[in-house]
């Protein structure tokens, strides 16, 4: 692993536009459960998975019922406000501060990248701490709406203050299109990149999983694709990635950052 860490650090130090794609693997190291792993939420509770597949259609058919159900049940992910960024999150934020990492495109909805200090984060599947208008894509912090008061007053669903349309959670549900603004910005970042870090994602959930494949096919600039995952993925087997550093993101990423510092400051 040592040689691969040094190789990744050298590739990063020599890159012009590096981006990172992150998935559940980086969040599980902060104690947030995944969904389909051996101890995953849906593995243990198939009924929860069935309801998750129905959420978007329920919102379209009956936004009031959608919100009443969400407000009556605790999150399967637990209290995300109590979760803290781990060393992997902080390492990516440090790479941004060094001017190397230009953007994080995250599958996770937990806001931990921002809390660690990353400022250019595209939340591909939304943010649990935000609300979003499905008509104009305006986003609001949860605190901007008193959802319990609206519920008690029989005034659900909340309405967009910009266009008046119904608002849902910013989380992207099954069957729901990726918000156009995030999808377009993500593609722009991919096309500009000459290096991609893939951190803690199984790369099987689409359309997110298409992003490294798009990076592999583009001709200019040619992208170096580095996987940091606990296990090989389809990207490994299909040779989408150039190489895999097998391990936990919270252990591998800080080591890469240390080596990058040596390249930048001439130590070691």
Summarize the SSE layout with pairings.
Elements: H1 2-14, E1 18-22, H2 24-28, H3 41-44, H4 46-61, H5 63-72, H6 87-97, E2 101-106, H7 112-116, E3 121-123, E4 130-133, E5 139-141, H8 147-152, E6 167-169, H9 180-192, E7 195-199, H10 210-217, E8 224-229, H11 234-237, E9 243-246, H12 249-265
Parallel strand pairs: 1-2, 1-7, 2-3, 7-8, 8-9
Antiparallel strand pairs: 4-5, 4-6
First-to-last CA distance: 18 Å
N-to-C order of helices and strands: HEHHHHHEHEEEHEHEHEHEH
Radius of gyration: 19 Å
Q: Low-confidence segments, ≥5 residues, pLDDT <50? A: none
Indicate the CATH architecture of the largest domain: 3-Layer(aba) Sandwich
Main sheet properties: 6 strands, parallel
Descriptive account of the structure:
With 268 residues, the chain is of the alpha/beta class. The chain has two domains: 1-32 and 85-128 and 177-268, Rossmann fold (3-Layer(aba) Sandwich); 34-76 and 129-170, 2-Layer Sandwich (SIR2/SIRT2 'Small Domain'), CATH 3.30.1600. Helix content is 42%, strand content 15%. The strands form two sheets. Strands 3-2-1-7-8-9 form a six-stranded parallel β-sheet, sandwiched between helices. α4 packs antiparallel against α5 and α6 (87-97) packs parallel to α12. The longest helix has 17 residues, at 249-265. It is elongated. The two termini are 18 Å apart. The mean pLDDT is 92.
């Amino acid at each position: 692993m040592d040689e691969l860490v040094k190789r990744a650090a050298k590739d990063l130090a020599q890159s012009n536009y590096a981006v990172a794609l992150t998935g559940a693997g980086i969040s599980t190291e902060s104690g947030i459960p995944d969904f389909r792993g051996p101890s995953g939420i849906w593995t243990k509770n198939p009924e929860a998975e069935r309801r998750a597949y129905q959420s978007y259609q329920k919102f379209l058919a009956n936004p009031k019922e959608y919100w009443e159900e969400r407000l009556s049940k605790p999150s399967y992910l637990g209290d995300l406000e109590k979760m803290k960024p781990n060393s992997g999150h902080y390492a990516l934020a440090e790479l941004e501060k060094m001017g190397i990492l230009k953007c994080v495109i995250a599958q996770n909805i937990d806001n931990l990248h921002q809390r660690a200090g990353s400022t250019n984060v595209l939340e591909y599947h939304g943010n649990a701490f935000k609300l979003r208008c499905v008509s104009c894509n305006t986003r609001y912090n949860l605190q901007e709406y008193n959802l319990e008061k609206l519920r008690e007053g029989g005034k659900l669903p909340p309405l967009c203050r910009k266009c008046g349309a119904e608002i849902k959670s910013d989380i992207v549900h099954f069957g729901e299109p990726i918000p156009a603004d995030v999808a377009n910005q993500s593609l722009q970042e991919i096309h500009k990149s000459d290096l991609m870090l893939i951190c803690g994602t199984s790369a099987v959930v689409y359309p997110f999983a298409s992003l490294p494949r798009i990076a592999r096919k583009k001709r200019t600039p040619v992208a170096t694709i580095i996987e940091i995952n606990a296990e090989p993925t389809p990207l490994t087997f299909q040779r989408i990635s150039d190489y895999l550093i097998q391990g936990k993101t919270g252990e591998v990423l800080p080591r890469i950052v240390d080596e990058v510092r040596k390249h930048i400051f001439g130590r070691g």
